[in-house]
Amino acid sequence: MSGNRKDTLVYPLPYSTEFSGGEYEFSNEVACNVSTYFKNDDVLELLQELWTNFTLGAGKLNIKKSTSIKENEFAITRLVEKNSFPILEKDFEYVIDVNAEGIFVSSNGEKGMIHAFTTVLQMIEPKNLEIGKEKFIIKNCCICDKPAIAFRGIHICIFPETTLIFIQKVIRLSGLMKFTHIVIEFWGMLKYDVMSELSWENAYSKDQIRPLIKEANAFGMEVIPMFNHLGHASSSRVVYGKHVVLDQNPRKALLFEPDGWTWCLSNPDTINLLKEVRKELIELCGEGQYFHLGCDEAYSFATCGLCKNTNKLDLLTNYINSLADDLKNYNRRGIIWGDALLDTTKWKSPNYATSRPDQGTHKILDKLDRSLIIDDWQYYITEGTVPTSEHFMEKGFDVILSPWRDLNNIRALSSGAQSINALGFLVTTWNTLNESIDLIPIAGECAWVGDRKKGKIEVDLMRCVAASLQRKLVPVHGIYKDAGWHEDDTKR
Ligand SMILES: [Zn+2]
Question: How far is the CA of 130 from the centre of ligand 1 (A)?
Fold first, then answer.
């Protein structure tokens, strides 16, 4: 048995890969038989496209639903009827057996099937690409696979500079890396029905976004809608000072605290507006169990004339609990960032907290609804444990751990999530994804592999891996502006 990177180029690294010598060889067309019970037709359609892409435009996968195939099994063969499937061991997601006859897969469900598909695609090797003589192989082997962490999420931001093809690349690469959840945050880039000023003029319509949601779902990923319900109300980054609402219509000022950065919780118009936003996003993003409410960096919370004269902490507690209640109507749980619930006087570097003594927002923690999930972003921890996450769990909350772009930070938090048995792991990407899309395979590998293998991750190699996979996931047909993941090769 081997789980070493040198033996396989599949990302994330499978639990075990055993090569048996020889190979399965195929040319242009192969047959893929799946059970008639298989429901996710979108992934079958997507898989046909990806099979052609991963065979560099030469191959065709003919998918057929068959009553002779058991639920949660599939076969890719030249000969249709000769199927013998490997036995899936307990606790594993899928097992793949490749032999001279073809590829045979058993899994624990549709998501296991999809994950097996994403592994098989990466195993295809071209041998001859001359027209009319095309030949591909997959080495004979047995792969047994399962993840270290069940909830493996990625948070992506859609900025005015983010193109639709870039989002598609990110979604497809995340799907290939077997992420389970994708949080989408629109930075003024979705057109809402409730208020036009919530979006910039070049924002995407819901009809432009729906096909991307469908692709994420096809990969078995749940899309988690996100909208900032406290700080970050400008829908822009604090560093450059743009404001999606107030730059377009200053008369909307009372929706916010005086500086515009935080929503005003005393204004009923704000409460109603945000309720409508949640409803629209939930309708757009498809079935799911969660909604990300943001609630970080609430620097100017309760600074207006109305908010100042109330009990600020009660105002905040009641507000967040009312959001949790509203989400229960949709059978969803709210997710909130943890920083404002951590006391700056208690949590010192490398732990990060934002509840300052003059605000004291950490004091509301005990009164918050336990249906809320705390997303503990800790970007400065690069080794050891994550005590803030343990603190939230001791208080009775489910916790998700969030790193950012630093490799050691990603490793420490995936390891931390696994060791304290947290609800999940959610890598954040913010404004840096279009300069480092290799973050997706790196984080995907850490979340899938966990502490099982602590081999060296070569960042330069991961960049090449990301580029190679991108070319197959979303071919650009020679169009320069669509190639790679940055529009300007002279930057950085
Ligand atoms: Zn106010």
Answer: 68
**Residues contacting 243, CB < 8 A, separation 6+:** 234, 235, 236, 260
What does the alpha-carbon distance between residue 378 and residue 173 come to, in Å, rounded to a whole number?
24
Q: Tell me the pLDDT tens digit for each residue of 295-332.
A: 988 888 899 999 999 999 999 999 999 999 999 999 99
Ligand 1 centroid from CA 203, angstroms:
28
Quote the ligand 1 centre to 245 CA distance (angstroms): 17
Percentage of the chain modeled with pLDDT above 70: 97
Q: What is the pLDDT of residues 242-285, one digit of tens each?
A: 999 999 999 999 999 999 999 999 999 999 999 999 999 999 99
Centre of ligand 1 to C-alpha 192, Å, is 24
- CA–centroid distance, residue 292 to ligand 1 (Å): 22
Size (the chain), residues: 492
Ligand 1 centroid – CA 131 distance (Å):
68
φ and ψ at residue 20, rounded to 5 degrees: -115, 10
398 by Cβ neighbours in 10 Å (0-12 / 13-18 / 19+) ranks as middle
CA distances, 484 to each of 9, 106, 173 (Å): 20, 35, 13
Task: Identify any residues that bridge with 158 across adjacent strands, giving them in sequence order.
Answer: 186
Q: Is the dihedral of CA 360, 366, 372, 377 positive or negative?
A: positive
DSSP-assigned letters across all residues of 342-362:
SBTTT--TTS---B-TTT-GG
Helix or strand holding residue 157 (H, E):
strand 152-158
Q: From the CA of 253, how far away is ligand 1's center (Å)?
A: 11
Q: How far is the CA of 226 from the centre of ligand 1 (A)?
A: 22
> Cα(308) to centroid of ligand 1, in Å?
7
- Is residue 404 within 8 A of residue 389, CB to CB? The reply is no
Q: How far apart are CA 471 and CA 483, in angstroms?
A: 8
Calpha distance 292→156 (Å, rounded): 12
CA 303 / ligand 1 centre spacing (Å): 6
Cα of 320 vs centre of ligand 1, distance in Å, is 15
The alpha carbon of 266 and the centre of ligand 1 are apart by a number of angstroms equal to: 5
pLDDT tens, 68-123? Answer: 889 999 999 876 565 689 999 999 999 999 999 999 999 999 999 999 999 999 99
Torsion of CA 201, 205, 211, 215, to 10 degrees: 60
Residue 487, judged by CB atoms within 10 A of its CB (0-12, 13-18, 19+), counts as: middle
The whole-number pLDDT of residue 82 equals 57
pTM for the predicted model, two decimal places: 0.96
